[in-house]
Every structure is written in structure tokens, then in C-alpha cells.
Amino acid sequence: MTYVDTTNISAEMFITVLLFLIVIAPLFSLAILRFFQGKKKAGLLLIVSGVAVYLIFQVIMKLFF
Question: Can you tell me where the transmembrane regions are (predicted)?
Fold first, then answer.
């Protein structure tokens, strides 16, 4: 059994990742729900929003960490 070493993760990085996951995951799950409800335009908008937030997250991670 192996363990992941998390001692090198700063509190700022942990909080940043946590906040973005709290935003990104619901956007994609709501998009799937909208697709099942037959609301394709709303689903696509949520997926595009999720991708945009993910790209912003990548930029922030490269700039600050």
C-alpha cells in the first residue's frame, strides 16, 4: 500500500484547488442533468462555462504555483 505525500502542498494551493472543484464539478453535473431534461442549449452553456472555469484555473495555477 502506498501513500500520497501531501506535505509539499501549501494551504493556499489546497484552498485554490478546493474552491475551483466546488465550482467545476457542479457545472458539469448540472450540464448532464440539463441534457437528460432535453435542454440542450442550457447543457451546452454549462459545459462551456465549466471548461472556461477550468481554463481560468489552469492559468491561475501556472501564474501563482
Answer: 13-36, 43-64
- Measured torsion, CA atoms of residues 45, 38, 19, 3, in degrees rounded to the nearest 10: -120
pLDDT in tens, 18-59: 999 999 999 999 999 999 999 999 999 999 999 999 999 999
Nearest CA-CA partner of 33 in 42, 22, 23: 42
CA 38-39-45 angle, to 5 degrees, is: 145
| Distances in whole angstroms, Cα of residue 59 to Cα of each of 4, 10, 34 | 25, 18, 28
Does pTM top 0.85 for this prediction?
no
